[in-house]
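Exercise 7.
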Amino acid sequence: MKKISARNVFEGAVKEINEGATTSHVLIDVNGNTITTSITNESVEELGLQVGKKVYAVIKSSEVMVAVD
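Solution. The predicted structure, written as tokens, is:
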């Protein structure tokens, strides 16, 4: 992987791709944990994503919210 400024980078593999009309939900297996992301179908194609392909989940967020009942 090329260098990136984000610090939350997790290596994994594509577990599942659920394609919608314009957006796909891509499930990434990271050490037995699943990270789900929504990306455009165009991005899925451009990245050559397929089940089993090695990928990196790059998480860049300004906040994480937690709620309870």
